[in-house]
Amino acid sequence: MDFVNAPDCICAQPQYTVYMNSILMHLKNRRLIWQGHQSSDDQKHHWHSGFEPLDELLHGGWPNDGVVLLQSDCGIGELRLLLPALQQRQQQQQRLLALIAPPYQLNGEPLAACGLDLSQILLIQPATSQQALWSAEQCLKSGCCYAALLWHDALEIPQLKRLQLAAQQGQAVQFILRQSSALLNALPLQLSLQLQAQPQGIGVTVHKQRGQRSGRQTMVNMQRHWPQLCMPQPANNVVRLHQQKAG
Amino acid sequence: MTQLWLYLHFYQLQLDKLFVTDNSQAVAIVDPRQHQIVQRNEQASQHGIEVGMGLATAALLHQDIQVIAYNNEQEQQALQEIASWLYLSTSDISLYPPQGLLLRVHPMLMMYQGLDNYWLAIEQQLARLNIHYHYASGPSPLAARMLAINAHNQLCADKQQAMQILYEYPLSRSELTAKQQEKLARVGIRTLQDLIRLPLADIARRFDIDLVNYIGRLRGELQHPQTFYLPPARFEQQLPLLYEIEQTQYLQRPLQHLFTQLEQFLRWRDCYCTELELQLIQRDNAPVILSVHSAQGDYLAATWQKLTALRLENIQLTAPVTDLKLKALHITSKGSEVSDLFDGRQGVMRPLQLLSLLQAKLGREAVSSPAVADDFRPERACTYLPALQQADLPAQLHSQRPILLLPKPQPLTDKVQVMYGPERICSGWWDEQPILRDYFIARSPDGRWCWIYRQADQRWFLQGYFA
What we know:
The complex is a heterodimer.
Chain A: E1 2-4, H1 7-11, H2 20-29, E2 33-35, H3 52-57, E3 66-71, H4 78-93, E4 96-100, E5 105-106, H5 108-113, E6 121-124, H6 129-142, E7 145-151, H7 157-170, E8 173-178, E9 191-198, E10 201-209, E11 217-221, E12 244-245
Parallel strand pairs in A: 3-8, 3-9, 4-6, 4-7, 7-8
Antiparallel strand pairs in A: 1-2, 9-10, 10-11
Chain B: E1 5-9, H1 13-17, E2 27-31, E3 36-40, H2 42-46, H3 55-61, E4 66-69, H4 72-86, E5 93-96, E6 100-104, H5 109-112, H6 115-129, E7 134-138, H7 141-149, H8 159-167, H9 178-186, H10 192-197, H11 200-206, H12 209-218, E8 236-245, H13 252-269, E9 271-282, E10 288-298, H14 301-313, E11 321-333, H15 351-362, E12 367-372, H16 378-381, E13 382-386, E14 404-411, E15 416-427, E16 435-443, E17 449-455, E18 460-465
Parallel strand pairs in B: 2-4
Antiparallel strand pairs in B: 1-6, 1-7, 2-3, 5-6, 8-11, 9-10, 9-11, 12-13, 14-18, 15-16, 16-17, 17-18
Organism (chain B): Pseudobowmanella zhangzhouensis
InterPro entries (chain B): DNA/RNA_pol_sf, SulA_CellDiv_inhibitor, UmuC
Keywords (chain B): DNA damage
């Protein structure tokens, strides 16, 4: 379905007598029409996530700026889902990555092992959640970070709006990792995803994506990147050694 | 006005700077290259030890002598200190390292109303330093220097008289090289008097230009430019407030005044400041001392004001502020900044500026960069460095490590399914924190990937999450 984004353009020129199709064509050429199946940005400007199903789900990959909300339990692989993309962009842009208020100690070794330059990572541990939001805003606004990861549970609309503006100003992406699963459709976000643990990786559901339908799902298989962190595929000819530990 | 220079020769500077507790101890400074005594104290001299003596001879004369190696840098440092001390009394000081200071006297005579008063002031300043020196005045820098080095120890404003004394010195006491002296000796010139008698044009024809320059400068006929000592730049300003201020946000206006002065100070010198100290002097209470950092360095008042405002947010005043005091702790010269015009994205800030901003608000230790230490023990391998600092990675990185580590391993209480392992880590027997653990990767029923380990006593712990 085509959707006319700028009706005043038609009204302003009542003497327009050609057919509807040519009007649409005209508007389309002037980029005043937005079509639902097109993504708002060109494919090439997208930031590939490193996982094909995810790129497909997000129509090209992570957005180039704005706020991305990831609702997920801690420890199911939510950071591993971001690592290939973060590493790729660090190499391209030579900018900083800010990690703000992680819930536990951040271990540099796996980050270095997947190719991130640790000296280009700012680990910020603010005392209060207010300071955490302030740090995130400063990092985004400064223009010297390509992404900021913030662990934060209580989010409000004005705060998100500020982060969104700061992210656009600094051409950076704000990833917010959030544990609670309350639906937040009305929030001003670029992208909101729900992550669920799956035996082979992570199940991703789009709650909201600007200019796209919501509710789409996919399964990101992490077998190739982290074979040890996947349940073995159930196969008929393999006898599984089952070790169960009672705590 | 006729020129008048004063030269101070500190012939045993290193020895004088040495802190000797026992005054009966004989001490000598020895040049380690030639094993010669270069400086010795009173006690050593009583045992017959003289400057220029070999170390072996000195040891024979007095076996209990304390010997210290000569250190040029120490003397230069001491010379700087003396210069900054004398700068209180006289303006133009030129450093002749390692042991000399040249003072330009003639511009100071008007202020002190005569050479005697001037010398009295200098002598009093030097007396407080408790150092030994020779001195002499002369109509040219070189003349004063030569007289002082030869321990003339007299001042004389009259040019003719000073030169007369100088001319009687043999050439060996001048600063001419041995080669030049030999050349002159061959044609029968043995004292300065003989040399001066020759017209400069003749000397120029027969000898090299260095000798002509030397004679000309000695007699004060040729220019002898000097570089004068400048005390290192310091910025320290105190601002008394008209009204006492009890809330930090009202400090912004008076602070702006101080920062504008700082900006001007730095701009004139083309410098950056990287660290400031701000003292809020409180009535009936100890002053609050804040240090404000800028990792990149800055001179703009607005930037410093912003950083200081962030620091002030965290300060609770206990008493009204009566005075502000601002001190620049570290001043550095501006480094050259290069950025690509066609890079497209022009950031508002540089990484170091962002770092200063974050550190000003959150504290220095709240911002860091992760690093990996070369250790098998996970607690030791996971370290943090000051932010943006480059560090070497260990040769081998373990890929099976969780991104999030618990601050302390917790006893494992949940039922988990072991998926991978074991990986035995047995290390640290050398520094008394040994571990012997079998690590496993496990999955909890709700899908979290845990890093767990079993100790030798079969107890299980959870150490991290593969987030």
